[in-house]
Queue: 4 jobs
Job 1
Amino acid sequence: MKKIFTLALTLAVSAMFAAIPAAEKIALIRLYKNTNGAQWTNKWDLKKPETQWYGVTIKNNQVTGLDLSNNNLTGTLPTEIGNLTGLVKLNLFKNNISGQIPTRIGQLQNLQSLNLAFNKLEGNIPTTIGQLVHLQNLEMYMNRLNGNIPAEIGQIKGLQTLSLYNNELEGEIPTTMYGLASLKVLLLSSNRLSGKLSPDMANLASLENLSLFENKFDGQVPFDLEKLKNLREMNISYNMFNGLVSRKLAQLDTLHMTMINEQGVATTLKVEKDNTAIANED
């Protein structure tokens, strides 16, 4: 019995320290070196097993989690990050990561949560993001990302949170996004987005929080948005919307539908009640 117990213990210990695939170890080491690992708040001892590296979760000899949030990573993301194909969660929130998001991030097709927020990332959001079909939470706010929101995001059917506020994104909201029936939180404020809101936004049946604050949207706020029965919080002020808005929607806006007209002057949308337009400050 003692021999059996010893053997079982040996196997368990061996499994615990089993090496991850070489490609995954290369990716981790490259990330460490690219982001000045020697200056991390919680450093890695590369001589020790990967199971002892801070923020690394390993299951079945694969890296499934990487949480290095608020850890003073300074530098760029390596293309080899695409080697971490077993990742379910990647959290690099609040560091000093600069440069572009590697297109190979689309290879992380097991990801359920991706947080790159509060860094210094720039350039376009890669279209390969649409390959992350299991993603539920996508957070890239507080960066310097520009260009259009990729239409490919509409392929992530299980997406629940999309947070891209405080970037430099341009263009219209892709129509493909209106098919995201599971989306609960859509935060796109403080960008350079423009165009008119489509009535199809009412297809976001699960939406609870909508923030389009401080962009360049214009036209009328679609009355169809009243169909969003789960909507609890909305902020669409400091855009260039005009015309009438429903009272129900106006009551959700914390800044009372304050807009900026073409002359740069703050105005207030009028609220429709019983087919009569009245100022919403009454």
Job 2
Amino acid sequence: MDKFDKLIKILKDYQKIVVAFSGGVDSSVLTQAAHLALGDKAIAVTADSPLLQDNEKDDAVKVAKIVGIKHILMKSDDLAVPEIAANDKNRCYYCKKFRFTNMCNWAKENGFNYIIEGSNLDDKTDYRPGMKAIAELSDMVKLPFLEAGIGKKEIRQIAHKYNLPVWNKPSQACLASRLAYGLSLTADRLEQVDKAERLLRQYINGQIRVRHHGKLARIEIMPEEFAKFALPDFRTKIYNELKELGFTFITLDMNGYKMGSQNAAISQIQNQPN
């Protein structure tokens, strides 16, 4: 039995499930697998939150239609939760706990046995306090990729096999991950980084992050794209357009894109002598 067959068997054993569906490649493959395993006994639910990029929501709607699964956009007012809006190092924990508690309550009320979530083997390598919230809800929230021993490379291969348009989509994280820890989450700041990344996507290939440090925007891209910023006209255009969004200083991170780069600040704080 290969890993995908094992995944299908695991999902069949769940009998009636809700897929926590963000629109990324992980949850898209999980949605495809759930529909193959359980048909109309599986539905996909997307947390419609100000922390979700518009293109992510669009991808979720598109993939759900391709798969043929019932899809619900569930409003999630994350910024109304003070612990989330405060944006400390445990933000992901509070956010996951809030969203999944609401989703679990909804699932129980509507006769579903479990929520399934798309964490995979490769997610164990970064700082992820949200996993603590999932563990606290483990009676209801299951992680089938981990049970089946599936990592990111295999997920992309499965997505390609089933012609899912997100198969080669760069990994994404919610907009809150763009703001430096301690900088409170507001709708305006989230919109700033969303618009800035949307602008850069017109010109830059690969991973893009605009990290928000108050008045300073720190652009992370793949090193092979650095040369574009050596062109004075391009550099001036990007500078002016990001300045119009409200940033005073615009910088290019010489280290390039790094997953979870804001987490470096946590390590530095923890390692400082008293």
Job 3
Amino acid sequence: MNAYDYSLRTIDGDALPLETFKGKAVLLVNTASACGLTPQYEALEELYRKYQDRGLVVLGVPSNDFGGQEPGTEADIKQFCALKFNIEFPLASKEKVAGAAAHPLYRAIASELGEAAAPKWNFHKYLIGRDGALKASFGSRTVPDAPEIVAAIEAALA
């Protein structure tokens, strides 16, 4: 599986081929605005600001799959992220990330890593290397600035 073979849409509805990020490491995160884990947005933005000059992209993928915790429109989500967390990292349009109806990228990841590595809740994180290959998977409760995530990002950017 190579992430560059897939496309999403931006929060504004424009095409977002993942090959746009070729040569960069991408931390792919399914997000939600009304979740107990929503404060992770702050640490995700800090990671993005710290490492973006070295080639890291944090890519948020809003999803209403878990607990109905992202019920708003793309415009609502964009406004929430800007006002509450001053998010500058890119956001995709709202997508399904789990189960048979999941976006093809998430189905491919689950196929490659196994169903156990599929998102079970909001804020699951996948690290994609500069070559588009999956490098790591981190569960929802692993905070963005956890040592294992920082070490994986450092290795992917080396």
Job 4
Amino acid sequence: MAKSKVQRKKQPATAAPAGDDSLRVAIATALLDGEGPASLADRLIAEGHPASAARYEVERAVKSPYLKAATRLNARLAKRDWTLGVFSRLAQLDPDRARIPTIHDIDPDRFYRDFYLSNRPVKLTGLVDHWPALERWSLDHFDATLGDSIVELQGDREADPDFEIAKDPHQMRAPLRDVTRRLRTETGNDFYLTAYNSGINKQALAPLWADVAPISILAQREARDGFFWMGPKGTITPYHHDLTNNLLLQIVGRKRIRMVAAHDGPLMRNIVHCFSEWDGAELEAGEAAPGRPRVLDCTIGPGEALFLPIGWWHHVEGLDMTIGMSFTNFRLFNDFQTGYTSYGAM
């Protein structure tokens, strides 16, 4: 009697090894971004994945209840982006929002009413005309008064395209005199004393705070509320947004700032935390275009300041060797970072 043959059910092919979900994440991301299942499977095949495995993984993703739930969340996000797009279109209809105004010696009440509470940038002059720092701060003055002080800076930035995202590996310390020597001869983006280094530099540079004084639009909390910045011509801070309102102030040299309104965030290619995939060369100042936001442009020099509203994306370039400060101690609520929950989530 012939033995019966057991028919074994053919197991479906899988595109990714067990435990390796990177391809499945990529498939789900592509589907949520609007790529059709058929074209996605064809693309995977063209990239070298076996045809049966590619089609199986795409079909599996399409049928997944998890993707269905994510699709609903994606629709909510799209509705939010549509709402932001409405504000963007309305701003484009307002000629006053096509530029950053310049106001001299602004009245604090007007500043808060027309700019802080309206989330609008403004270039401000006359805020610090009374500061001794405008006359005293120079590389020679720093050498004479603080040359041996050990300061912290961000270094070796040009060796790492993610120098701003991964700041900690670039922290280094040096005598201030060594930094000023480099500032006299070097240009570029390789080193920079930034707000991120203020934990050390607040004490190391303490004698300088006698050269600053209260600013009319800010709240005075302590003798020195601001953050110190100093770098060569050519420093770059790539497109990002802050989690607070900021006042950027120049003492020496000029900075160019390009700005994108908070409501244009969906166009800013947010890749991680508060950083953008756009670089300065490809997202220049100009009007909005399909897939591109309106970009405003502003240059500030010695004694001038720029109010950077919370959520506004900005790109900062040092046009000269620069010394400046930034401040967050406004009179009204500015603790918005407390409610920010996206650290490490994207």
